[in-house]
Amino acid sequence: MAQIRPFRALRYNTNDPLSLALVTAPPYDCITPQEQEELYRTHPHNIVRLILGRRQPGDDATRNSYTRAADFLEKWKRTAILVRDADPSLYLYQQEFQVEGRAYLREGILARVGLEEYGTGKVFPHEETLPGPREDRLRLMREVRANLSPIFALYPDAENLVTQLVHQVIRCDPVVQTVDADGVVHRLFASSDPGLAERVAEVMADMPLYIADGHHRYETALAYRRELAEKGETVDENHPAASVLALCVSMHNPGLAVLPTHRVLRGLPDLTADRLRKATAEHFTWQEFVGAEATSPRLFEHLRDAPAHSFGLWTRDTVKAFLLTLKKPDVMDRLAPDKSDAWRRLDVAILERVLLGEDLPRAVADVAGLRREYVHLAQQAFDAVHEDGADAAVLLKPLPVASLEQMARTGERMPPKSTYFYPKALSGIVINPLD
Description:
Helix content is 34%, strand content 24%. The protein is an alpha+beta fold and 435 residues long. The longest helix is centred in the C-terminal third of the chain and has 17 residues, at 347-363.
């Protein structure tokens, strides 16, 4: 069963929206090196010093970015920069935002969620992880002994029971509110009512949890728990390290926005639209757009209304735009014989196996130099090609949440960069201590 528990959050000691905006940050894996430096300059107490500290000359096994993060954390607690809430609480987290001109309000519960090894309970992953990020996050967790950012988990609740329960109790002003650099409004409400925590835990006890974002953080928490147990520490269900900080959002929440992850392609100097059209003729039909119809808003609309397994395309050699649609999905039976039918019908899988894996090598002299970049807005992809010299950009449709649920339940992992849930939870809005 998925165990949902209240906790005493460690939070920045400020109710000032402007002050909070200066010290919070995106998740560590969304921060570029340039943004890291900007966050360092923004405020001496910015959370980036904990989640993605600078590496320095002379760093070694005993003095490094991880140990410095622990030093910062201890100092900030000692000087009341960070203060722990008096009582265990559940936190309602609201995010108000816009995507492609549409307004959203997403609500979720920040809580401790009991850790479960994959395949043994009701917590399901959907994406593959990499050893490098897992080891990086584990080294950090050993030093700071805290969850600095939540994982993002989805649960099925068509009747909206959990949010209704929380709204019945939380009728106060937010404990914090701020606006981030992207214009997203973040509000945090808290309830220390033990009755609410018990009712929410009871309602969610039999609900599966699908990890939508934060697979590396979840697996890091599992590894940390195992390490403590191997050292002889008793890590029962009440031990802080037996849980992980999670933002739990209903799959039926109207504010749940899943953005596509478009591919920007570089390192293909001889790629042209005509060469790619010839190379893909066996697998794809092509539709051509010119003028206003080739702009990012219109191409994305065309893609949205297109049949299944369609992709938008811009190439550097022409101002035209194109819509490519797969002719016969059963080509994936040959290209991915070891995968399930559901996996073979994923657009991101078709993109990687058919368009980029089999067709692209026939369109260019050498694909060894191919470099992928990932963006989430059609305009970003358009600008990369027509203003920043990228060789091509491929637009994808957003992944339906039902596909994520289906893949997670079967235990099959989707290709990397399959999903992007927007917006991300702010790092620093709450911290979950593990000591």
